[in-house]
């Protein structure tokens, strides 16, 4: 499969594996320096077409990895939004994945795309997510989907030690319900 090969090329270039990516990725936008993005995007689009024909967990998992490593440009996310006909199974796979860079993008997507159970998935991300960036993105999206619930879940974060979390929580809670 093309996407599997393209991801293998990326992991070799990055000197990482999908399992070590979260711990070793660090900060910044270093993934953008990868010289073969066009080939990876083409392979991701092929995988989306495969998923449109028949859902396959292995293909979906590869696409979750592609989504995660493309977290800065968001090209894969845009393709998922525009090209994937039935998003529910893939979105669930990404929301419950071990890739926070994919989870925050799914939180973003759920804020403006109607998917069955989207509110429940956003609440899951807020209540069980260890990564505060993912929580912030999920709170912002939940605010669009069910502002009253977002206010309720944002209140505990108004005094959070993370200044960005505090800012998002204050922004959500000050809006009229």
Please give the share of residues in helix.
55-70%
Low-confidence segments, given as residue ranges, are none
- Average the pLDDT over all residues and give the rounded result: 94
Please provide the count of β strands.
0
Largest sheet: none
Q: Helices and strands: which structural class?
A: mainly alpha
| Oligomeric category | single chain
Question: What percent strand?
Answer: under 5%
User: What is the helix tally?
Assistant: 11
Q: What coarse outline follows from CA principal-axis ratios?
A: globular
How would the blueprint of this fold be written?
Blueprint: H1 2-14, H2 18-24, H3 37-53, H4 57-69, H5 75-83, H6 88-95, H7 100-110, H8 118-128, H9 132-145, H10 147-154, H11 163-174
Helix pairs in contact: 1-3, 3-4, 3-5, 4-7, 7-9, 8-9, 9-10, 9-11, 10-11
Task: Kindly describe this structure.
- With 177 residues, the protein is mainly alpha-helical.
- Helices cover 69% and strands 0% of the residues.
- The chain is built from eleven helices and no strands.
- The longest helix is centred in the first third of the chain and has 17 residues, at 37-53.
- The chain is globular.
- The mean pLDDT is 94.
């Amino acid at each position: 499969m093309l996407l599997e090969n393209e991801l293998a090329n990326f992991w070799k270039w990055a000197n990482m594996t999908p399992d070590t990516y979260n711990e070793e990725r660090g900060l910044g936008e270093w993934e953008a320096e990868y010289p073969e993005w066009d080939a990876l995007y083409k392979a991701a689009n092929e995988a989306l077409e495969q998923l449109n024909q028949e859902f396959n967990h292995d293909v979906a998992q590869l696409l979750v990895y592609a989504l995660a490593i493309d977290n800065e440009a968001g090209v894969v996310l845009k393709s998922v939004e525009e090209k994937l006909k039935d998003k529910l199974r893939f979105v669930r796979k990404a929301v419950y994945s071990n890739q926070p860079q994919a989870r925050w993008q799914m939180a973003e997507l759920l804020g403006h795309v109607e998917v069955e159970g989207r509110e429940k998935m956003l609440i899951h991300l807020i209540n069980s997510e260890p990564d505060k960036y993912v929580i912030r993105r999920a709170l912002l999206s939940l605010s669009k989907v069910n502002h009253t619930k977002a206010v309720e879940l944002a209140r505990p974060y108004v005094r959070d030690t993370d200044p960005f979390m505090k800012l998002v929580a204050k922004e959500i809670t000050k809006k009229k319900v």
